[in-house]
Amino acid sequence: MNGMHLLSLSFEQNGHSQVITPVLLRDEHELILVDCGYPGFLPLLAEAANSQQLDLSALTRVIATHHDVDHIGALAALKQAYPQIEIIAYESDAPYVTGAKTSLRILQAQATLASLTGEELELAEQFIRFLQTIEPAPVERTVVDQDRLPWCGGIEIVHTPGHMPGHMSLYLPASQTLIAGDAVVIEDGKLAIANPQYALDLADAVRSVRRLLDYEIRQLVCYHGGLFQGDVKQALEELLQRYQTT
């Protein structure tokens, strides 16, 4: 029996309440986690899975949509706890997950240091130090745009760059579901581009949103915001209208 389970993880970050939504995909033979939260989130993941009568010890694979810390921070711990899992990443993003290349977020933050002073400089340096502590994880399988993975009714890889160059979303044709990662987020009930000021290529991010219109999407799951309530196509078109001059 195929199934999709949203893991709503609530936590405090920098004095603010936040929620992220990793996803578990399940069939008769597979239990696949899409993204995994910050370092130290393994207990939160296990608790959220248990609440849906699922056990992380049955995990077979973890798919990382991209290498931002809130998506891969617990990846190394997951691999250590459950060494049987296969970690999957987009081909161009994999070297950042494994630590072969310096995180693009570190490079982005370092590029701002010369223009910062005082508390802003201190916070940026603190952020860089935090990112440098993230433990790398092995990547056993890489994927590229339009690859089809055979599990859980089929999973199509959709390259959605912009937020990061190697960002991907996942399309489940059997249920017409798109797991967006950070390609889009939900803010005040509407779709938005995730932290546009930090997108590594905002124009690419907008093009990725436009590309999503090529898919019949009945359910849209955002890492920040969870399951979107409303007409997905209309919401994507409204988002694009806000960036029509981009």
UniProtKB/TrEMBL annotation:
CDD domains per record: yflN-like_MBL-fold
> What superkingdom heads the lineage?
Bacteria
This protein's UniProt keywords = Hydrolase
Q: Which reaction does it catalyse?
A: 3',5'-cyclic CMP + H2O = CMP + H(+); 3',5'-cyclic UMP + H2O = UMP + H(+)
Pfam families for this protein:
Lactamase_B (PF00753)
Domain Metallo-beta-lactamase stretches? 19-224
Gene Ontology MF term list: hydrolase activity
**What InterPro entries does UniProt report for this protein, alphabetically?**
Metallo-B-lactamas, NDM-1-like, RibonucZ/Hydroxyglut_hydro
Question: Mind telling me which residue stretches traverse the membrane in this protein?
Answer: none
Give the protein's function: Counteracts the endogenous Pycsar antiviral defense system. Phosphodiesterase that enables metal-dependent hydrolysis of host cyclic nucleotide Pycsar defense signals such as cCMP and cUMP.
Output this protein's name. MBL fold hydrolase
